[in-house]
Each structure stands twice: as structure tokens, then as C-alpha cells.
Specification:
Elements lengths: L6 H4 E3 L10 E4 L7 E7 L7 H13 L4 E6 L5 H9 L3 E5 L1 H10 L23
């Protein structure tokens, strides 16, 4: 998506036990002057406000005001409303939006097929 240069330099996975609620980070610019932290959850039900509040607290622990919370499921209305009320800028990406971003940016997808569309070549018939 244009962050931090090439794909290898732009991001780093951090999620391990004791990760303090941060799974990864993205360098917002090529020099790494600003960092966006990521929390990713493979979730069965909807992600609620308490999970977003924990992530907002983890951002404060990193002295950051920017974060992205990604889930394979969806977010409750309370979670969506909460991110509009806090000082930190947290972007919520649900499963549908994640799939669209993956296709748009060719991440984790492969072309399964393509179609060729023909049109009449009117120059062929001019002679």
C-alpha cells in the first residue's frame, strides 16, 4: 500500500507471548519516523469494545496514536463507536474489508484464471 518502501522493509511481525497486545508494526514512511501498530485476531464471534480498549491501551504503552485492528470476523457497534470517541486513531478492518484489500494489493492471492474478450476488427473488412 506504499508504506515504508518495499514489502520486506515496510512491516514486521511482533506477536508472541508477552507481546503486550501488539502483533506487528508498519513503518508509515521509508525512514520509519512514524509507526502504525497492528493487532490481528482470528475471531469466531464479533469483536467487542473491550478488545479495542485493550488495544488502545497497548498503543499508549508504545507512545503511539495510530493502530490497525484486523479481524477475520466483524466488530460490534460499540467497538465501532468507541474508536470514533478516543484520541488514538484506530482503523478497524473486518474480514470482508481485509479480503478486498488483499485482492486490491495482490497480497495472499493468486490469479485463478482470466478471460479474453474479442471485438470485431472493422479494419479487416474495409478492403
Amino acid at each position: 500500500m506504499g508504506y515504508g518502501g518495499n514489502r520486506q522493509d515496510a512491516a514486521r511481525a511482533m506477536g508472541k507471548s508477552g507481546d503486550e497486545g501488539i502483533d506487528g508494526m508498519i513503518n508509515e514512511d521509508k525512514l520509519g519516523l512514524d509507526v502504525i501498530y497492528i493487532q490481528a485476531k482470528r475471531w469466531e464471534g464479533t469483536v467487542g469494545r473491550p478488545e479495542i480498549q485493550k488495544f488502545a491501551g497497548a498503543l499508549q504503552g508504545k507512545r503511539s496514536k495510530k493502530g490497525i485492528f484486523i479481524t477475520t470476523s466483524s466488530f460490534t457497534k460499540e467497538a465501532i463507536d468507541y474508536v470514533t470517541m478516543i484520541e488514538s486513531k484506530i482503523i478497524l478492518i473486518d474480514g470482508d474489508r481485509m479480503a478486498k484489500l488483499m485482492v486490491d494489493h495482490d497480497v495472499g492471492v493468486a490469479t485463478a484464471g482470466s478471460y479474453e474478450i474479442k471485438r470485431i476488427d472493422s479494419d479487416y473488412f474495409d478492403e
